[in-house]
Design goal:
Keywords: DNA-binding, Kinase, Phosphoprotein, Transcription, Transcription regulation, Transferase, Two-component regulatory system. By secondary structure, the protein is an alpha/beta fold. It has two domains: 131 residues, 3-Layer(aba) Sandwich (Rossmann fold); 156 residues, Beta-Lactamase. The chain has eleven helices and ten strands. The strands form two sheets. A five-stranded parallel beta sheet has the order 2-1-3-4-5, sandwiched between helices. The chain has a five-stranded antiparallel beta sheet with strand order 7-6-10-9-8, with helices on both faces. The longest helix has 45 residues.
């Protein structure tokens, strides 16, 4: 039996055809190739199924009642997540006008009836491989852009450290920039232990999401669970809150903040945990990538250096 994870990695194909027998044959043919299949009997069902399931590919009959395949294809291309998804139109029409109409509607390719099943299987494999390559390219492009943004952030912090700086302004600006770069809904930076005077707390939160203010910082940082890891300088990642081992009280508080995934970076100053950077993904779970964690780790070192400089400057000023 396949695991849930392996099933999720198997391409999902949406078959849309008003003819039940054709739908069944297409379903069996695709399952024989090892794909998962969902069905729709008309254009409206096809649009709804695409929105709900986000399939990897659509096999779409051109001639359907009420909404034909050409119109359905055009509307599919207007839905979020459809950009690089292949849509293969299956049609009994082989005239040039119909072919032109299919491509104008946004079809990736077409195949004519009667269906030659070996040809269909080969076409599906090729289109899925191309789609996967485009998806990987887009992922690498976005990763490169993010890395460039991280680089600019590090350069900005380093430049500020090379001259007299206000620690509060530096930390506040970093939290704001970090939320944008990481593409998350909330970033919190707080001083873990209260020293003389007020504890430093900085928060940048996207519009429409609640502030952490009513919730104790110890719960925000999961200090009771992960303090040992923080003291060892380890970054803590929880990619899916639903699967995290949290106390009922903590889970309730975190759910109030709409947290779905979190990454927490300890800031180590003079071999002690000075504070934490807490990064909250609030829309969906997020598998934090290794290269991202490296960037956050380096950010922790930079911020520790800034805080150490500020403490030294404060100590020198006090001793005068």
């Amino acid at each position: 039996m396949r695991s849930d994870r392996s099933q999720e990695q198997t391409p999902l194909i949406l078959v849309a055809d008003d003819d039940r027998a054709t739908r069944l044959l297409l379903k069996l043919a695709m399952e024989e190739e090892g794909y998962r299949v969902i069905e729709a009997k008309d254009g409206e069902q096809c649009l709804a199924a695409f929105t709900r399931w986000q399939p990897d590919m659509v096999l779409l009959d051109a001639i359907m009642p009420e909404m034909d395949g050409f119109t359905c294809c055009q509307r599919l291309r207007q839905l979020p997540g459809s950009t690089n998804k292949p849509i293969l139109i299956i049609t009994a029409l082989d005239d040039q006008d119909s072919i032109d109409r299919a491509f104008a509607a946004g079809a990736t390719d077409y195949i004519t009836k009667p269906i030659y099943w070996a040809v269909l299987a080969q076409r599906v494999r090729r289109l899925l491989a191309t789609s996967q390559a485009l998806k990987q390219f887009e992922h690498l492009r976005q990763q490169f852009e993010q890395q460039q943004q991280w680089k600019r952030l590090f350069e900005t912090i380093a430049q500020r450290l090379s001259q007299p700086f206000d620690l509060r302004q530096l930390l506040d600006a970093t939290v704001t920039d970090l939320r944008s770069i990481a593409g998350v809904e909330r970033v919190v930076l707080y001083q873990q232990r209260r020293r003389l005077g007020m504890r430093l707390v900085f928060e940048s939160v996207a519009s429409g999401y609640p502030s952490i203010e009513p919730i104790p910082l110890e719960i925000i940082g999961l200090e009771s669970q992960y303090q040992t890891q923080y003291e060892q300088g380890h970054i803590v990642t929880l990619p899916d809150l639903a699967l995290a081992e949290l106390s009922p009280e903590t889970r309730e508080q975190w759910e109030r903040l709409n947290i779905k995934a979190v990454l927490m970076v300890p800031i180590i100053v003079r071999e002690q945990v000075w504070g934490l950077v807490c990064v909250h993904q609030c829309q969906t779970a997020r598998p934090w990538e290794a290269w991202e964690i490296e960037q956050f780790s380096f950010l922790g070192y930079l911020l520790a250096g800034a805080i150490y400089q500020a403490l030294l400057r404060q100590q020198l000023s006090t001793n005068r």
